[in-house]
Write a structure and sequence with these properties.
Elements lengths: L8 E7 L5 H14 L3 E8 L5 H10 L5 E4 L11 E7 L3 E2 L2 E2 L11 E7 L3 H12 L9 E6 L1 E4 L6 E4 L2 E5 L2 E4 L14
Parallel strand pairs: 1-2, 1-3
Antiparallel strand pairs: 4-7, 5-6, 7-8, 9-12, 10-11
């Protein structure tokens, strides 16, 4: 398997103005350092308008990894992935990919096949198709109403098999975007 570990050094940037942001800042620092991440800088940003500039400065300054938190549990994740799936329900192409995705929740599920191995990607599809016991062993899921997905290099995004966009992209729930007509229950 051809994988590259995440950097050990990072900059932590937390929106301290958000709900519980200031309280969670110290806890986030402790947990990251306990996990072996050396924080080369940590910023509790009081003015949310300065978040983007603080992140841009960290990136421009050469930070190997920038971890951004909303202060309420929303933390940016950076990983190697051979495929990223955007789900609003459990199925894609007739294959059940997620036990957690449900149209009725109003949430999007982002499912990443972790690693850089194409055989692992093939195994993931095989395991999900046949509903094997370890079918979730190589994926990580994120649930929410909005996500920004960025890749290096830029990648095509296919919707129903048609390449319609490229990364970076922000995906979000669009309430009431479609109406569904179904027969009345008898």
């Amino acid at each position: 398997m051809d994988t590259k570990p995440l950097p050990n050094d990072a900059v932590l940037i937390v929106n301290a103005h958000s709900r519980r942001g200031q309280d969670n800042f110290a806890e986030a620092r402790e947990k990251l350092e306990a996990a072996g991440i050396r924080l080369i800088a940590a910023h509790a940003v009081e003015d949310p308008e300065k978040m983007a500039a603080t992140v841009a400065a960290a990136v421009a300054g050469g930070a190997p990894m920038v971890i951004v938190g909303g202060g309420d549990g929303r933390t940016e994740r950076r990983m190697w992935s051979t495929e990223v799936r955007i789900l609003n329900g459990p199925f894609l192409g007739g294959v059940e990919l997620s036990d957690q995705a449900d149209v009725d929740t109003g949430e999007i599920v982002i499912q990443a096949v972790v690693g850089r191995s194409k055989p692992r990607l093939a195994w993931d599809w095989y395991a999900k198709f046949f509903k094997l016991r370890d079918r979730h062993a190589h994926t990580e899921e994120f649930r929410g109403r909005s996500f920004k997905i960025d890749t290096t290099p830029r990648q095509k995004i296919a919707l129903d098999g048609e390449p319609l966009a490229k990364t970076p992209v922000t995906v979000r729930v669009a309430p009431g975007a479609i109406e569904v007509a179904a027969p009345a229950e008898s």
